[in-house]
Amino acid sequence: MEHDRRRVALASGAVAGSIALIGFGVDSFVEVVAGGIIVWRLSKERHGEEISDAAERQAVKLIAATFFILSAGIAIESARKFVTGEHADASPLGIAVTSVSLIVMPILARAKHRVGVAIGSRSVQADATETMLCVWLSAIVLVGLVCNAVFDWWWADPLAALGIVYIAAREGIAYSRAEQLGDCC
User: Fold this and answer.
1) Among candidates 31, 51, 33, 34, which has minimal Cα distance to 42?
2) Which of 5, 57, 30 is nearest to 133 (CA)?
3) Of 3, 48, 114, 163, most Cβ neighbours within 10 A?
4) What are the extents of the domains in the chain?
5) Mean pLDDT across the stretch 70-76?
6) Which pTM does this prediction carry?
7) What is the percentage of the chain residues whose pLDDT exceeds 90?
8) Cα end-to-end span (Å), the chain
C-alpha cells in the first residue's frame, strides 16, 4: 500500500503541479528509508546479535536526517512557488489519497509504536513517529488541496507544503536533540 500511495501522490502531484502533494509523496520515500533502517536493526536482533547503544543511536540519527532532507527540499520548492506565483491545479486523486492516508496511517503508527515500546527500541519508536508525521501531512495536504480546488486559493498549496516543512524539521530536531541527550523517544 505504501508503495502505491507514494506513486499515486507523486504522479498526481506532478500532474497538478502541487508541491504539497509532491512533498507528501516524497515523505513516503523518507518512510521507506526509515523502514529500511528499522529492518536492518530488527534483522540484527533476529539473528541473535546484541543491538548496541551505538547502533541504536545511529539508527535514530539516520531517521532524524531523513526529516531534515525532506524539509529542506520542500522549503526550497515552496519558496519558489510563492515567488513565481506558480499555481497548482486541482487534484481529486490527491484529495482521495490523502483522505485514505488519514484513515490508515494512524493505525499503522500506533502498531509500530506498541512494537517499539514492547522491544525497547528507540529507533522503532522513531519510525512510528515518522509514520504519525504522515497523518499530519495528510491532513495539511488535504486542507491545501481542498482550498485550492474549492476556493481557487493557489497559495494554499505552497502554504500547506510549508506545514510539512515545519513538522518534518521539528521532528528532526527533536530526535537529534534526544539522541544527543541519550534519551530518545
Assistant:
1) 51
2) 30
3) 163
4) 2-181
5) 90
6) 0.75
7) 32
8) 27
**Residues composing the chain:** 185
Average pLDDT taken over every residue of the chain: 83
DSSP 90: P
**2-181 has which fold?**
Alpha-lytic protease prodomain-like (1.20.1510)
In Å, how far from its chain's centre is CA 43? 23
Query: pLDDT for 132-147, tens place per residue?
Result: 878 888 899 999 999 9
Q: Which three cell numbers stand for residue 158?
A: 505552497
Query: Quick one: CA dihedral 106, 152, 77, 165, positive or negative?
Result: negative
- Give the pLDDT confidence score for residue 5 in this predicted structure: 63
Q: What is the mean pLDDT of residues 147-156?
A: 94
C-beta of residue 34 within 8 angstroms of C-beta of residue 101: no
- Long-range contacts of range 166-170, CB-CB < 8 Å, 24 or more positions apart? 166/71, 167/133, 167/136, 167/137, 167/140, 168/27, 168/67, 168/68, 168/70, 168/71, 168/74, 168/133, 169/67, 169/68, 169/71
Q: Where are the alpha helices (DSSP H) in the chain?
A: 2-16, 19-46, 53-84, 92-119, 122-151, 156-181
Please give the angle made by the CA atoms of 94, 97 and 103, to the nearest 5 degrees: 145
pLDDT band at 2 (very low <50, low <70, confident <90, very high): low
95: amino acid identity, one letter: I
